[in-house]
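Q: For a teaching handout, I want to show students what a protein-ligand complex looks like in token form. Below are the inputs, and the small molecule is NDP. Please produce the holo structure.
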Amino acid sequence: MITLKGAEVSAKIKEQVTEDLKKLGGTIPTLAIVRVGEKPDDMSYERGAKKKLESFGLKAESFVFPEDITDQDFKEAFRKICEDEQVTGILLLKPLPKQICEKDIDRMIDPKKDLDGISPENIAKVFAGDPTGFAPCTAEAVIEVLKAYDIPITGKRATVVGRSMIVGKPLSMLLLKENATVTVCHTRTADLKGTCKNAEILVAAAGKAKMLDGDYVGEGAVVIDVGINVDGDGKLCGDVDFASIQEKAAMATPVPGGVGAVTTAVLAAHLVRAALQQAG
Ligand code: NDP
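A: Here is the structure, written as tokens, with NDP included.
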């Protein structure tokens, strides 16, 4: 089985970002990372995103708010960030605390700065196959992995386990745009094992540690693991039991070192694209 390495895909994306950056004539775009509270997962993602952006020659600035900020105060602050001309793009770390209406925030974000595709306008563009929109970075990262390794998508049976608005649903639309025949699975799927086994491209985005073992993988399948979980020993792991699919899958992404590294590279690519679009 070939291991699909996120770092290699990220390096390819960096080449393109470096080229695109030259078109901005020396202007360095700035990402605003908006975080409410001190959740370790958010802080670790924020550190990773900042490191990646800086290594791509881009800027990132954190806007941090207390966990108990009121809905009104947060909306006021968020509006200012959206309107700030120094801010090229925005990454909002979710979920937000319960007192903040997330749907309102999704509608408030300027679609031109919405790098992770949470606004209704960008969601609609992803569903319409309109390339001017921003898809959620993780969903796009899966497509980038497949393309970087020249894995054919057209006509392939692709199964996505998970139907969230941030991964499963947009990813199924992106795969459809690439002419895959897409099946989306979830907790009510009757024959999950059989459906997964039938896939030529299997994407795991359920958020359940090692739930897909070798029994869920067909001979020669390409397996992309989006999951980021912690196993019983406290170690980071994906939704796929990587060891048990070695004899079945042709290729697979590891966790860590797979899709996660590509997600932040896509974020960087989105930031530069936003800057170019805003510059007209
Ligand atoms: P959600 O919890 O929002 O969605 C999980 C989805 O998986 C749901 O649609 C759920 O079905 C489905 N699901 C859960 N358990 C099962 C099961 N046993 N059988 C079949 N379907 C199941 O998670 P996210 O989409 O936000 O994230 C998914 C994973 O991806 C997480 O591990 C997350 O940490 C990771 N992630 C990774 C990123 C990266 O950069 N690599 C970025 C974002 C997320 P139902 O709808 O029926 O409840």
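A: Two things your students might notice: The pocket of NDP is lined by residues 138, 161-164, 166-168, 185-189, 192, 205-208, 211, 226-229, 259-260, 263 (CB under 6 Å). The first helix runs from residue 6 to 22.
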